[in-house]
């Protein structure tokens, strides 16, 4: 299921970009598909310029493709789990953990490649007494390494919790509807409206988590 639906996500993204780039590129007056792609491009470009500090614009843009792929994948993948009989890939911890660890390893490699051992200087604030330096380095490195774990847990927990709530309440509403009892039938709209409200909320969470996870 994870492999199948990740391939489905990839196919949808490629299909969307194919509609925009066919016949040599976009139109001067964009259609709906081109407007969507341009919106995604601008939405990712702004955080890249804002969140990556201390680098020139051209250097920042080298990281744009990787960040754009992460955001686009999550944006298409998270809401697909709301479709009946679909499968939410990001509600599985191994998937989100693999994604967060691969990004963490990539960031660490780029950091050492560009800065050498000076990359570790983030763990030692300026002006710290030398006897305290080993302890502070250890205290800073531990939470830095745990970011790879926490990013995966955050995405997994948000997607799993919302989907579980919707599934439990919708099952309760369906059971009440099938009880063949007038009292249960009259009381059924309550859980049903809650399910509808939670579905809208979960859709918003699925979209917002794509942005939050990419920034993290």
Any overview of this molecule?
- The longest helix is centred in the last third of the chain and has 45 residues, at 133-177.
- Helix 2 (32-51) crosses helix 4 and helix 5 (93-115) packs antiparallel against helix 6 (133-177).
- It contains eight helices and no strands.
- 75% of the residues lie in helices and 0% in strands.
- The protein is flat.
- It is an all-alpha fold.
- It has one domain (31-215).
List keywords for this structure.
mainly alpha; flat; 0% strand; 216 residues; 8 helices; 75% helix
The radius of gyration is 22 Å
Query: What count of structural domains?
Result: 1
Q: What profile does the largest beta sheet have? A: none
Order of helices and strands: HHHHHHHH
| Strand portion | under 5%
Q: How would you classify the helix and strand content by structural class? A: mainly alpha
Shape: flat
Mean pLDDT: 79
Unreliable spans: none
Would you report the number of β strands?
0
- Tally of contiguous helical segments: 8
Determine the N-to-C terminus distance.
Answer: 27 Å
Helix content: over 70%
Family: Belongs to the ATPase A chain family.
Keywords: ATP synthesis, CF(0), Hydrogen ion transport, Ion transport, Membrane, Mitochondrion, Mitochondrion inner membrane, Signal, Transmembrane, Transmembrane helix, Transport
InterPro entries: ATP_synth_F0_asu, ATP_synth_F0_asu_AS, ATP_synth_F0_asu_bact/mt, F0_ATP_A_sf
Main location: mitochondrion
């Amino acid at each position: 299921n994870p492999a199948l639906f990740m391939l489905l996500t990839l196919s949808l993204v490629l299909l969307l970009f194919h509609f925009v780039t066919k016949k040599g590129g976009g139109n001067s007056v964009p259609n709906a598909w081109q407007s969507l792609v341009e919106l995604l491009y601008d939405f990712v470009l702004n955080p890249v310029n804002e969140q990556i500090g201390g680098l020139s614009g051209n250097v920042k843009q080298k990281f744009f493709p990787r960040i754009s792929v992460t955001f686009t994948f999550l944006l298409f993948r998270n809401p697909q789990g709301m479709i009946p009989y679909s499968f939410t890939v990001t509600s599985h911890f191994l998937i989100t953990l693999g994604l967060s660890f691969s990004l963490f390893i990539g960031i660490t490699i780029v950091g050492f490649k560009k800065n050498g051992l000076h990359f570790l200087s983030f763990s030692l604030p300026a002006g710290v007494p030398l006897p305290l330096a080993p302890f502070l380095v250890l205290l800073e490195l531990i939470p830095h390494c745990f970011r790879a774990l926490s990013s995966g847990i955050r995405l997994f927990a948000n997607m799993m919790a919302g989907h579980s709530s919707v599934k439990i309440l919708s099952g309760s509403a369906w059971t009440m509807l099938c009880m063949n009892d007038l009292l249960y039938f009259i009381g059924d709209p309550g859980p049903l409206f809650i399910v509808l409200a939670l579905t809208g909320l979960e859709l918003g969470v699925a979209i917002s988590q794509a942005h939050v996870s990419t920034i993290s």
